[in-house]
Amino acid sequence: GGSVVINVSGGDSVDTDADGLSDDVEKALGTDANSFDTDKDGMDDAWEVIHGLDPLFGGDANADYDEDGLT
Question: What pTM did the predictor assign?
Answer without folding.
Answer: 0.74
